[in-house]
Amino acid sequence: MTAVVPRMTRRIAFWLGEEGRHGSAPFPAGGGEADAPSLSGLVFLFLADDQRADGSAGWRRGRKVLREVEAKLAATPGITYQVRALPGRDGRALRKPRKAGRRSRWALRRPADGLDFSRALASSRAAIHRDVAALRMGGAIVTRPAMVCYAVAPPLADAITAEEYGRLASEALVTWVVPEGSAALMPPAFTASGAQVLTDHYAVGDEAAHLVRGGTRGC
């Protein structure tokens, strides 16, 4: 007898690229829609500040853009995005991620002076591992993690930073947003592994959210 796959199950299978494959399903069929696991996305919002004396305006703009991305993700039907804002005052990943749309306006803080970018990347990768494991233990189907990074100025790609970034980019979809005129200055190490670089403009929040939705749902 052929099992009847609930409608919600078919939708989840389609988003994860499983629709149409014989004998494949993200979880055993047979339960009702109420028994189907939820579809969750994990997104890191990263504010890379250059700490220049005139950087405060760029930091405020970066925070605004990242909050717009979060708002767009929160309105996405069929998937719950969990969001973590980085870095904190000391560059560490603190507490657990929150459901998109529930962050306070102070969640995206300006990094402390002298923040080690390579260390922040390493802590982000460690947090991805913890967060994905926690979501899966809760019964969720977790899509590919994503990071949206607003760079007030392109970060320096020294050997250690480039290595840490390469590790992160192998595990997460990375989208950079940089001010106009800075895109050509992005080091090649940060544009590898399929990373997208967007020039800041009035609708860049929509564009970045669209890339996150397409990249996470399409894997």
Q: What is the total tally of β strands?
A: 7
Helix content: 25-40%
Output the radius of gyration: 18 Å
Shape estimate: globular
How many helical elements? 6
How far apart, in Å, are the first and last alpha carbons? 31 Å
CATH C-level class is Alpha Beta
The CATH architecture category equals 3-Layer(aba) Sandwich
Low-pLDDT sequence parts: 1-34, 88-93
Sheet with the most strands, sense and barrel status: 7 strands, mixed
**CATH superfamily descriptor:** von Willebrand factor, type A domain
Summarize model confidence as the mean pLDDT. 76
In N-to-C order, the SSE pattern is HEHEEHEEHEHEH
Strand content: 15-25%
Q: Can you tell me the number of structural domains?
A: 1
Sheet/helix structural class: alpha/beta
CATH topology: Rossmann fold
Please explain how this structure is put together:
36% of the residues lie in helices and 17% in strands. With 219 residues, the chain is of the alpha/beta class. The protein has one domain (38-217): 3-Layer(aba) Sandwich (Rossmann fold). Strands 1, 2, 3, 4, 5, 6 and 7 form a seven-stranded mixed beta sheet that branches. Strand 1, helix 2 (56-74) and strand 2 (80-86) form a beta-alpha-beta unit. Mean pLDDT is 76; it is low at 1-34 and 88-93.
Summarize the topology:
Layout: H1 7-15, E1 39-48, H2 56-74, E2 80-86, E3 98-99, H3 117-137, E4 141-142, E5 146-151, H4 159-169, E6 173-178, H5 188-191, E7 196-199, H6 204-217
Parallel strand pairs: 1-2, 1-4, 1-5, 5-6, 6-7
Antiparallel strand pairs: 2-3
